[in-house]
Amino acid sequence: MGMLYFLNFQLFSITSVVAFSSAQGLDERINNAFMPFAVWWENLILSEISILGYGIPVVLIVLIIGALFFTLYFGFVNVRHFPTAIQVVRGKYDELENAGVKLKTIVHEVDGDLKGTIKDEGHLGEVNHFQALATAVSGTVGLGNIALVAVAISIGGPGATFWMVLAGLLGMSTKFVECTLGVKYRDIDKDGTVFGGPMYYLSRGLKEKRLGYLGKFLAVVFAVLCIGASFGGGNAFQSNQAAAQIIGLFEFSGSATGSIIGLVFAILAGIVIIGGIKRIAKVTEKVVPVMAILYVGAALFIIFSKIELMGEVFGQIFSEAFTPKATITGGFVGVMIQGFRRAAFSNEAGAGSAAIAHSAVSTGYPASEGLVGLLEPFIDTVLICTMTAVVIILFNMDGAFIYGDVLDGQALFKDGSRLGGVNITSLAFENSIKGSSYVLMIAVCLFAFSTILSWSYYGLQAWKYLFGREKLTDLTYKVLFLMFTVLGAAITLDAVIKFSDAMILALVFPNMIGLLILFPNVKNEFKKYIVLISKNKSD
């Protein structure tokens, strides 16, 4: 009955927004109202400092230096312990991790949990390693991998791919640190529900360092920004690009078409997110493999069908990383900024958001989930973003669009038209496999939907940290979140990129301060876990 009430209330609230219209058109009216704020917020978060005559955003400097430091300090954990991470996800060490943990059995529903899914919550968590990874990957492997890679390539040319991959490799170490801390400092209430993420390791971890006031301040700042990021990059951007793909493919028209598509997404998402992390995890562990098979399968087919061109493609990627042909401000530094910026949005390493999902894992050893977390940037950026980039570069071998000539997020094509984001990727796929744009549409919708689900959980955790854990608090956030699903589908790509980029990247500031103070705690946890699995190997 409660769920029915929620859905009815949600449908009424969102429909009220969609029903409003004027001669100007609903979508255009929403966009015009939203754009000034998006521009202001982007300029604030991406403030630059001059280094050797180049303007470089401060947030990217923080990300790069932090990721490089963690990679060196932990002895290239991203490379040396990659095989270990795979074994952890496969469940090889589950019994070791939970040895000695007293199990308890709960047979009723708690806070939206599904019957039959919480019988083993005594594992000190709510989901297993694979479910935690699937939920977090579904939050990072979204339309940033499809749409924003196209934006990066159209602005910076093929060379942006090199910097994206480098950012992904370094980001694996950052993700290891934040996911370990997420589990170490999480809060588990009496019914087994987990509350975790940067809000908790900032407040609790810094308090241990006698920096309690700073920790509390940073935790509150992070929570506020995380809520904004859940509305923007984790929600509005996803529905925006899904709507763009559907409208472009079927040539829909009408002043409120985007809003209507957003409404459909909102209703479907509402049905899932009412169930909490367990229902989200159950959906994402099924959706993520399907969308990966669809998208990665199509991309690999295109790549192998044109394998003879791979030498030229990778030649462009490496050479133009330092001597770009694209007319981009700042030369190779401008290309580097594009690559790191898109990678940061895509895999969120340093933003801390994924640590919220990883905190719910069932383990007694925080570093085990840190190792699982480092797989995210590899899957997201090193694999999927690179595949997207290669497909787009192949498509543009004959100069279909002009690298560097981008207006409002859209590249200039030879016929004088402008397209951006997911529509460029769609053309690239369709050019190689006739009819594949329909497969891509399905993948896009799954990518968008799964990301919306994961980010609804991230934002809700931050919301509850600020406003409490009552049911009304829960309901209020979910209604607001779903309204942004509609809003995102109605505004332009340029507006939503500005807002979404800045919201995701803003999380870096409070989170990285905490990581750079608490990383010695991660080393201690890592040593304990390595000793545990080493003993198992020797037995």
From TrEMBL:
The chain crosses the membrane at residues 49-74, 132-155, 161-183, 213-232, 252-275, 287-307, 313-337, 378-397, 438-458, 479-497, 503-522. GO terms for molecular function: amino acid:sodium symporter activity. Keywords: Cell membrane, Membrane, Symport, Transmembrane, Transmembrane helix, Transport. PANTHER family: AGSS FAMILY TRANSPORTER, SODIUM-ALANINE, TRANSCRIPTIONAL REGULATOR, LRP FAMILY. Gene3D superfamilies: Amino acid/polyamine transporter I. It comes from Flagellimonas pacifica. Belongs to the alanine or glycine:cation symporter (AGCS) (TC 2.A.25) family. One of its GO terms (cellular component) is plasma membrane. This is Alanine or glycine:cation symporter, AGCS family. Coiled coil: none annotated. It is found in: Cell membrane. The keyword Kinase does not apply. It is a multi-pass membrane protein. Pfam families: Na_Ala_symp (PF01235). InterPro entries: Na/Ala_symport.
